[in-house]
Structures are given as structure tokens and as C-alpha cells.
Amino acid sequence: xxxxxxxxxxxxxxxxxxxxxxxxxxxxxxxxxxxxxxxxxxxxxxxxxxxxxxxxxxxxxxxxxxxxxxxxxxxxxxxxxxxxxxxxxxxxxxxxxxxxxxxxxxxxxxxxxxxxxxxxxxxxxxxxxxxxxxxxxxxxxxxxxxxxxxxxxxxxxxxxxxxxxxxxxxxxxxxxxxxxxxxxxxxxxxxxxxxxxxxxxxxxxxxxxxxxxxxxxxxxxxxxxxxxxxxxxxxxxxxxxxxxxxxxxxxxxxxxxxxxxxxxxxxxxxxxxxxxxxxxxxxxxxxxxxxxxxxxxxxxxxxxxxxxxxxxxxxxxxxxxxxxxxxxxxxxxxxxxxxxxxxxxxxxxxxxxxxxxxxxxxxxxxxxxxxxxxxxxxxxxxxxxxxxxxxxxxxxxxxxxxxxxxxxxxxxxxxxxxxxxxxxxxxxxxxxxxxxxxxxxxxxxxxxxxxxxxxxxxxxxxxxxxxxxxxxxxxxxxxxxxxxxxxxxxxxxxxxxxxxxxxxxxxxxxxxxxxxxxxxxxxxxxxxxxxxxxxxxxxxxxxxxxxxxxxxxxxxxxxxxxxxxxxxxxxxxxxxxxxxxxxxxxxxxxxxxxxxxxxxxxxxxxxxxxxxxxxxxxxxxxxxxxxxxxxxxxxxxxxxxxxxxxxxxxxxxxxxxxxxxxxxxxxxxxxxxxxxx
Length: 677
Known about the structure:
Elements: H1 3-10, H2 12-18, H3 32-40, H4 48-56, H5 61-76, E1 96-97, E2 101-108, H6 127-130, E3 138-145, E4 152-159, H7 164-167, E5 172-178, E6 186-192, H8 197-206, E7 208-217, E8 220-223, E9 231-233, E10 238-242, E11 261-263, E12 268-273, E13 279-283, H9 301-307, E14 338-341, E15 351-353, E16 361-368, E17 373-380, E18 383-385, E19 387-395, E20 411-418, E21 423-428, H10 445-450, H11 452-459, E22 464-465, E23 467-473, E24 478-483, E25 507-513, E26 522-530, E27 556-561, E28 567-571, E29 584-588, E30 598-603, E31 609-615, E32 621-627, E33 635-636, E34 639-640, E35 664-670
Parallel strand pairs: 10-15
Antiparallel strand pairs: 1-30, 2-35, 3-4, 4-7, 5-6, 7-8, 7-9, 10-11, 12-13, 13-14, 14-15, 16-17, 17-19, 18-22, 19-20, 20-21, 21-26, 23-24, 24-25, 25-26, 27-28, 28-29, 29-30, 31-32, 32-35, 33-34
């Protein structure tokens, strides 16, 4: 057994996050990869302004004017809209930011959030302490200004999942195991000690989210520990189910006969902040939290199979019956939703808004359409799954916050279908329309939403290559879809120089909604970038020729469109083995002669994933989330590294022998102040 395989077997949470399964979509719907191949096999040279012109055909004149101004600005600056000195790509145990900028650690796993929070002690962790401290594996980062200020507000942060081998001392044992093919040889294998109640409860308390007041003082950000709105949300926080599926018999359990009350939220990946100042948490890889076996011929069997439930990465079901599907068959239906939290009220009950569908949500970025309806873009992070959007029935009222608080309970969920000719349709998932009827097993709209994936299958949606974060750009009327990769697609394309499937490195799709209206039900699409190393011809990457050897990347994951309409992309999966570099934050030009040019702004330590990112409205601060630093077992600097608590590949950010590596949020500012440029 090689060391990487050993790590995979020993560290199941890492395996779950890498999502290297076969994909769960049973349909033969035409894949996005097949569409791209057919459309671009003879057109790869049509990039830059020609590609921009094709997609711009459906954008409104006002949006085109903005885009033209952006192109003019880019041309005046030599092409790119970004002028920071580029970071050198590479791998080491530290983080790196562009010259002339500071990257200060603001919040680390275990940091106190309240005046009475205990100090972090990694050797004596308790769920009570963790519930008063910053959680683990920070992912989405959002900011809700207080008094309209970009220097004082609430930082909202998702805590996606836990890595027990990095968190707890004494649980990893290294043993030598005989090689199955050659018993005379041995290979190291890592074994994780059996979990106990305390460890499981600490992990549950480390999930969820954090709401914390922060303030900029003399150019540096500080946590306000006595902030009146500071709050931790965990896997045990009481929540309400609302919208069309609430109260369904399929959501009722022995603890909740109403089907409207659920404990906690898990695996919160990317998210969003609404125009009315609420915090959105999106539940992603929920399948890994459930164990057990459904009773034979149970009515939820097909539903759960489509989501990979139960996968059994976490063994919480041994200690909490609700995570054992044999004991609580409906509990898994209460996860996989979008959660809305009123961050301004620390006593508010978070709402799981079922109208936005149930699947492996990555992100819930949103924008106000021209008629005032609010549009949410949603990716289902699974190989061969779909891109969605939700359009509210009601309209946003900027002068009456209370009137907006239940906008997410009524509206239409759409799924995308892409065509070879560059057009696309948003197909509504409405009970009673098309195949979404009783004949296909749907009793009402609640059923359609509980089984969103199956409903989208029946509509013939286009299977995508792991759709993750999706960012609408209010400046130019476009939408950017991050497609991380799909190593299981098109095995016939694998060869010696490109041993993975053709789309091992992912790509970014750009959508122009019809007439620049985000609420439209049709639009056009283009490939903004095919990712990977442009120097390897077989990869087929399409970065501009102005992109340096530091500027290309693979595995786009999260994205952010700043207030100037500039695109920032963070990655998940760059590594010594995959790309010879760590993950990071890249600035990507989307307009003009620099279209397709990418520059590296920030890079993470070895083993980490780059999450966040967020540039504040005044453009003077960028927040990024460094997730699971030190995770991984690939070769770095010539040696194999099975990284765990006692033998870490990095002890970032503290670099103290008595401290493990700690996921953290980093605040990036320009030295001396000023705009991130």
C-alpha cells in the first residue's frame, strides 16, 4: 500500500472532501464536457474579443457600456485591470501575498469569540469550549456592514467539516503493514483510534458558522469579543424548516412530529449575504454524516441513493441516533438545504429555506434583478450534477427590512440546460409541469424539492463537471460558474502525458442572461477558461498568452466579484502531485484584450485549500479563508509526508510546537493603506 493510499484509507474526512467518487447521476443526459468538445473542437482560437462579442449579444446596452468602459480601463493600464506584483507559485509551509500587501491572521480555529470564552487548549478540548470558540475549517466568508461602513461590521464564516487527524492528539497510530504483493516488504499505515462521545461532540460543535463583530483600527482588523451580535451556530443549534417542503411527512422524526424543527447544520461550504443583511449557509456533502442501513424496501431508498446516503465518513450515528438512518430514516431529508440566519439578532432561529432545493449546495451568491426580484445561483458539487438558480416571487424592498425576511420561502427553482449553439435554458422545477407529476412519484412541490436531483434528471438538465461557486456580476450582467473538475469523465482521453480525464483541472463557464436580466429564463454561454498548465499541450488550457507560469491554476472552486466587477477565483486541489503548486487566490480578467489573463495574488501553505474570498466594498481589504492546512500525504520537497497532529507538514499559522495547524481567516490590506489593485 503506498503512502497516499494509506492516508486516504486512514483519513476519511479528507477522502470525503476530495469527492473522488464515480458520480451519482444515473441519467444519460448530454454532459457539459461533450457539449464543449463539440462546440469548440474547431473554435479554440476564437478567444478574447471574439468570444466576448458572442456572449455580449444578449447583454443589455447599459451592461455593454459598463463592459466597454472596463475594457478601456484595462487597455489604458496595459491590458489587465490588476496591477499588483504577482506572487511566485510554489509549495512551502507558509502563506505568501503580493509584494506591498500585508496578510494578517484575524481568526484561528479555537480563538475566543466572547469575553467568557476559554482559551484554546488543543489537548483538553470540550464541546462546551468549542461552542464559544471559532470553529474548524472556515470556508465561506461574508461581511455585513454596521452603519454602512467597510471598516466596521459582522464577519460571517462557515465551518464546513472537521479533520480529526489534524485536530486531536493521540488518535493516530502508525503501523507497518506487510505488502499484499510482497510479504517481505512493509509499508506504513495510519490507524485512527476509535472515537468517543467527547470527540464526536467537539466535532459537532466545530461545525456550523460564526458571526463575529470586527473593526478596523489604525489600518488593522480586530475582533470585538464583546460584540452584542457575536454568535456560534453548530450542528446542535435549533433551526426551523420553512417553505414548500416544511411539514412534509418525509421530514418528520421521532423527535419532531411536525417536520418543521431540526437540530443543526453541517458541511456548510460557500454561502452568501442577502441584500437585506442576512447570512446564508449552504449545506453540501451531507451524505458523509449518516451511517446505518435503511429498512428493506424503504420509500426513501432511491432518494438517498441519488445523494450517496449513508456514506459513513463520520460515525456520529453511534452516539446520536438521528444520524443513523436505520433508527431515524427521515433525518437525512432534513439536511442538504440552504440556511438563512438573521445575523443582527443573536437569538433568532435559523431557517432552512426548502424552496431553494435539496442537494449538495456549493454557494448561494445572489443579485437583485432589474424588477426587484432576488436571484440566487446554486451549484450542486458532484460530478455529473447540475447548475441551478432560484428567483424569488416577491421583490426586495431596500426601505423595509422586515418585508424581506421571508422572501426565500416563495419563488421558482430552475435548473440549467445548455445547448451546442451557445444558448441555454433555465427549466423550472414546478410540481405538475412536464414530468414532475404523481405518475413519477411526486405528490406535491415539497416532494419535488426533497428530491431536487431526480426532478432535474427528469427534466433533462445538463450534467456538469462539479459545479461549485457561482458568481453573478452586476457590473456587466454576466454569471461565472466554477467547474472544479471531473476525473471520471471521458476515460478514452487519458494518455501518458495526461493521465487523468481531459477535464482534470476544471473550467469556468460565463453565462450572459437574456437581455442582461438575471431573472431571465434563457441566455447564452461561453467558456471563459479551460484550466491547467498551458505549457502542456494535451491539457488544452486556454489562459491568455499574457498569463505567466505563476498565473495559471487548476481546480477553480470559490469565486468573488468585487464592486468594480473584477473576478477573483480561489482553488481546491492544486498540490505537489496535481500541479506542483499550492492552492491560492487568482485575479482573472474577464473583459477586453486581457480577457483570460490570470495573476496569483495569495497562496496558501502546503496541504491547505483556498476558500473565501471576499473583497470589501471599499476595495481596501480582502478576506480569505485558509482551510485544512497541513492535510495531505503527497511528496513535497522529495519526501513523502503523512501529515497528522504529531507529525505535521506545517504548523501554520502559529508555528509553535505546542500548537497544531489551525484553519484561519486572513485579512489582506495594502501597506500604507489604499485600494487592492
